[in-house]
Amino acid sequence: MKVIITGGTGYIGSHTAMEMLGANYEVVLIDNFSNSYPWVAERIATLSGKQVLMEEVDLTDADALDVCLARHNDAAAIIHFAALKAVGESVEMPLRYYRNNLIGLLNLLSSMIRHSIPDLVFSSSCTVYGAAENMPIDETAPLLAPLSPYGATKRMAEEMITDLASANRIRAVLLRYFNPVGAHHSAQLGELPIGVPNNLMPFITQTAIGKRKKLMVFGNDYPTPDGTPIRDYIHVTDLAIAHLKALQRMLNGKQKKSSEVFNLGTGKGYSVLEMIHAFEKHNGVKVPYEITDRRPGDIAEIWADTSLANKELRWHAQYGLKEMVTTAWQWEQHLQTEENLNPEEVSK
Ligand code: UFG
Question: Which one of the listed residues 25, 129, 150, 222 is annotated catalytic?
Answer without folding.
Answer: 150
